[in-house]
Amino acid sequence: MVGGFTRSLSSFTYRTFFKKESTYFTAIVATGVGFSMVFNTAFDRYWDKKTAGTKWEDIKDRYAQE
Prior knowledge:
about 70 residues; membrane; mitochondrion inner membrane; QCR9_sf; 3 helices; respiratory chain; Single alpha-helices involved in coiled-coils or other helix-helix interfaces; QCR9; single chain; mainly alpha
């Protein structure tokens, strides 16, 4: 049962994404852009949390004068 599902899933994936070169290229680019956006957002949130209180926007009120 599982083997049939896996076979049909791989067949569907091949027919949908990998059969034509243009679709394959589009899938690769879209996956790369999506991964980049998710990774950058996650890392920015991590970095902002880790360095809270030490960035310029956090301390500029103490040093900036009008």
